[in-house]
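Weekly puzzle thread! Below is a chain. First person to post its structure in C-alpha coordinate form gets bragging rights.
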Amino acid sequence: MPRRRKKRRRESKRVPRSDATLPEFDRSALPEGLVTRRQLRDMGLSPGGNKGPVAILRCKLCATRPQWSCRHPTRGFLLRVDLAKPKRVPTLAQEWALDQAMAARSTCPRCRRRYYYCLPLRRQGCCDPCQHGFEPSPDTVMTSPAKHLLAA
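Winning reply:
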Protein backbone atom coordinates (compact mmCIF):
# COMPACT_ATOMS: atom_id res chain seq x y z
CA MET A 1 0.00 0.00 0.00
CA PRO A 2 1.50 3.37 -0.98
CA ARG A 3 2.40 5.83 1.71
CA ARG A 4 0.54 9.07 1.95
CA ARG A 5 2.59 12.11 1.16
CA LYS A 6 2.75 14.79 3.78
CA LYS A 7 1.20 18.03 2.73
CA ARG A 8 3.66 20.84 2.85
CA ARG A 9 2.46 23.92 4.52
CA ARG A 10 2.42 26.81 2.11
CA GLU A 11 4.63 29.61 3.28
CA SER A 12 2.96 32.98 3.10
CA LYS A 13 5.29 35.65 1.85
CA ARG A 14 4.43 38.58 4.03
CA VAL A 15 5.89 41.90 3.09
CA PRO A 16 5.56 44.93 5.35
CA ARG A 17 3.40 47.57 3.76
CA SER A 18 6.24 50.11 3.94
CA ASP A 19 8.45 47.87 1.70
CA ALA A 20 5.78 47.29 -0.97
CA THR A 21 6.77 48.35 -4.49
CA LEU A 22 3.45 50.08 -5.29
CA PRO A 23 1.25 52.19 -3.01
CA GLU A 24 -1.79 50.36 -1.69
CA PHE A 25 -5.27 51.71 -1.08
CA ASP A 26 -8.29 50.28 0.67
CA ARG A 27 -11.61 50.24 -1.16
CA SER A 28 -13.03 53.05 0.94
CA ALA A 29 -10.01 55.37 0.60
CA LEU A 30 -9.49 55.32 -3.16
CA PRO A 31 -8.04 58.56 -4.62
CA GLU A 32 -9.62 60.34 -7.58
CA GLY A 33 -8.30 59.44 -11.01
CA LEU A 34 -7.38 55.79 -10.24
CA VAL A 35 -9.63 52.96 -11.47
CA THR A 36 -9.39 49.25 -12.24
CA ARG A 37 -9.39 47.76 -15.75
CA ARG A 38 -13.01 46.71 -15.36
CA GLN A 39 -14.02 50.25 -14.45
CA LEU A 40 -12.10 51.54 -17.49
CA ARG A 41 -13.97 49.09 -19.69
CA ASP A 42 -17.31 50.26 -18.27
CA MET A 43 -16.34 53.85 -19.13
CA GLY A 44 -15.57 52.85 -22.72
CA LEU A 45 -11.82 53.36 -22.31
CA SER A 46 -8.76 51.16 -22.77
CA PRO A 47 -5.55 51.36 -20.68
CA GLY A 48 -3.85 53.14 -23.60
CA GLY A 49 -0.86 55.13 -22.32
CA ASN A 50 -0.66 53.35 -18.96
CA LYS A 51 2.64 51.46 -18.82
CA GLY A 52 1.41 49.36 -15.94
CA PRO A 53 -0.44 49.65 -12.65
CA VAL A 54 0.37 52.66 -10.51
CA ALA A 55 -1.22 51.36 -7.29
CA ILE A 56 -2.86 48.30 -5.76
CA LEU A 57 -6.44 48.04 -4.55
CA ARG A 58 -6.32 45.91 -1.41
CA CYS A 59 -8.70 42.99 -0.97
CA LYS A 60 -11.33 42.91 1.78
CA LEU A 61 -9.27 40.58 3.94
CA CYS A 62 -6.19 42.80 3.91
CA ALA A 63 -8.24 45.85 4.89
CA THR A 64 -8.19 44.40 8.42
CA ARG A 65 -4.38 44.08 8.35
CA PRO A 66 -3.04 47.57 7.63
CA GLN A 67 0.57 46.72 8.43
CA TRP A 68 0.97 44.03 5.73
CA SER A 69 1.09 44.35 1.96
CA CYS A 70 -1.71 42.60 0.04
CA ARG A 71 -0.54 39.50 -1.86
CA HIS A 72 -3.90 37.83 -2.50
CA PRO A 73 -5.12 37.06 -6.04
CA THR A 74 -8.27 39.10 -5.38
CA ARG A 75 -6.36 42.37 -5.20
CA GLY A 76 -6.89 44.85 -8.00
CA PHE A 77 -4.42 46.91 -9.94
CA LEU A 78 -5.23 50.58 -10.37
CA LEU A 79 -4.60 52.59 -13.54
CA ARG A 80 -4.74 56.31 -14.24
CA VAL A 81 -7.84 57.59 -16.02
CA ASP A 82 -6.09 60.59 -17.59
CA LEU A 83 -3.72 58.30 -19.55
CA ALA A 84 -6.53 56.04 -20.80
CA LYS A 85 -7.63 56.23 -24.43
CA PRO A 86 -10.99 55.52 -26.07
CA LYS A 87 -11.60 51.94 -27.16
CA ARG A 88 -10.81 51.18 -30.77
CA VAL A 89 -13.80 50.38 -32.95
CA PRO A 90 -13.28 47.46 -35.36
CA THR A 91 -13.75 48.09 -39.05
CA LEU A 92 -16.53 46.44 -41.03
CA ALA A 93 -14.02 44.06 -42.64
CA GLN A 94 -12.70 42.97 -39.23
CA GLU A 95 -16.19 42.30 -37.94
CA TRP A 96 -17.09 40.42 -41.11
CA ALA A 97 -13.99 38.22 -40.69
CA LEU A 98 -14.92 37.49 -37.06
CA ASP A 99 -18.47 36.63 -38.10
CA GLN A 100 -17.17 34.21 -40.74
CA ALA A 101 -14.90 32.54 -38.17
CA MET A 102 -17.79 32.13 -35.73
CA ALA A 103 -19.99 30.79 -38.54
CA ALA A 104 -17.41 28.08 -39.23
CA ARG A 105 -17.45 27.05 -35.56
CA SER A 106 -21.24 27.02 -35.24
CA THR A 107 -22.29 25.41 -38.57
CA CYS A 108 -22.73 21.65 -38.81
CA PRO A 109 -20.88 20.17 -41.81
CA ARG A 110 -23.54 17.44 -42.30
CA CYS A 111 -26.86 19.25 -42.10
CA ARG A 112 -25.52 22.80 -42.76
CA ARG A 113 -27.56 24.28 -39.88
CA ARG A 114 -26.06 27.20 -38.00
CA TYR A 115 -26.50 27.14 -34.24
CA TYR A 116 -26.32 29.90 -31.64
CA TYR A 117 -23.43 28.13 -29.91
CA CYS A 118 -20.12 26.55 -30.95
CA LEU A 119 -20.30 22.89 -31.92
CA PRO A 120 -17.96 20.13 -30.68
CA LEU A 121 -16.57 19.55 -34.19
CA ARG A 122 -13.19 18.15 -33.08
CA ARG A 123 -14.74 15.58 -30.80
CA GLN A 124 -17.92 14.65 -32.69
CA GLY A 125 -17.51 16.12 -36.15
CA CYS A 126 -21.15 17.24 -36.30
CA CYS A 127 -24.01 18.60 -34.19
CA ASP A 128 -25.82 16.54 -31.54
CA PRO A 129 -29.02 16.05 -33.61
CA CYS A 130 -26.98 14.60 -36.49
CA GLN A 131 -24.95 12.45 -34.11
CA HIS A 132 -27.96 10.99 -32.26
CA GLY A 133 -30.59 11.21 -34.99
CA PHE A 134 -33.19 13.63 -33.64
CA GLU A 135 -34.57 16.99 -34.77
CA PRO A 136 -33.04 20.09 -33.12
CA SER A 137 -35.21 22.43 -31.10
CA PRO A 138 -36.10 25.63 -32.98
CA ASP A 139 -34.65 27.95 -30.33
CA THR A 140 -31.08 26.64 -30.89
CA VAL A 141 -30.95 26.98 -34.70
CA MET A 142 -30.68 30.19 -36.71
CA THR A 143 -33.60 29.94 -39.11
CA SER A 144 -32.97 32.88 -41.42
CA PRO A 145 -29.71 34.36 -42.64
CA ALA A 146 -28.40 36.90 -40.17
CA LYS A 147 -29.19 40.52 -40.86
CA HIS A 148 -26.47 43.13 -40.89
CA LEU A 149 -25.93 43.56 -37.15
CA LEU A 150 -22.27 44.52 -37.22
CA ALA A 151 -21.23 47.49 -35.11
CA ALA A 152 -19.12 49.37 -37.67
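Puzzle host: Confirmed. Bonus trivia for everyone else. The longest helix spans residues 92-106.
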